[in-house]
Amino acid sequence: MRDMMRSLRWRGRRDLVVEQVPVPSPDDDEALIHVLWTGICGSDLEEYLEGPVVIRGPVTLGHEIVGRVVRAARDGSGPAEGQIVVVDVVTGCGACFWCLSHEEGLCPSLVVKGQHEDGGLAERLVARADRLIPVPEGLGAREAALAEPTAVAVRAARKFGPIDRRGGLVVGGGTIGLLVAQVLRHEGAERVVIVEPDADRAAVATGLGFDVVWADSPSDRAARVAALFPDRGVDLVAECSGAPGAAAEAIALARAGGIVVLLSVTPGTTPIGTTEVVLREKTIHGSAAHMWDTDVAPAVALIASGAIDVKPLITAVVPLTDGAGAFELLADRTVSNIKILVRIGEE
Questions:
Q1: How many angstroms separate the CA atoms of 251 and 228, rounded?
Q2: pLDDT tens digits along 191-205
Q3: Is 0.90 surpassed by the pTM of this model?
Q4: Which of 23, 81, 125, 270 is such that its CA lies 20 to 30 A from the CA of 8?
């Protein structure tokens, strides 16, 4: 009889239940991971509230995962037993144009743990061993749980090209926005400003050393941003809020010839000003996925070195047994949360 474990299973909208399920059996190239911490993000919340959007349910949610190897891969690949690791969650088919171009996140047959197959809100997880990122000594597993969203920020920053001595603006001071801002600063941005209305999030951003602007009117926000970049305007703009109209506003806030990276998805149709893009020759990139080597590994290194400070972003910790409560907490707009972590293991 197979060993059993606890798993937080999504079965429908606002229907999450801790169930006993069999411990998964790893293939030869997979390691068995004892999950320690798993973060909840906006896409998880979207599935909880509105899904299925991307997921193929019923499924165990969670794609921001750190754990300890309890059974190394039989083929000898990947870390040894006992190593704390960040789990890469993006897998392509390995044979299409995008996979062969090292862009597996764009693969038509993409599989993401926590969406298309069981993820990290469980006591055990199997994962491809050669894509596990070791957590260096001195970096706590709790902080390492933010490596996946940091990898999103690392990838997005790369879309900007040269950052040194340029000005950056981040629209949205949630998890991704605060991480993008820190990556831009680490890469040499001359100044980074965050647009954020929530007072608690703004306080975290200020505590991290960033200027924060807000005004209820878009024109007033634009004026405040312009006053902080009086020379030529904002070179680099990252839209991380997902708020209605935010994409168009981000494009408008970029200077002529500026670069905009969109990281969030707004439900429904999102109009943008093509005049701003065409006549002022602005460049727009989308950014979502990440690769284990070019994005996740550098993210772990940035957190471990202290270049990225993730501790102020962790605003709540809950046990796996109250996983559904964590989703309700994140959904409660009267409470300001940035990153909620689910504690699964003992470390």
A1: 17
A2: 999 999 999 999 999
A3: yes
A4: 81
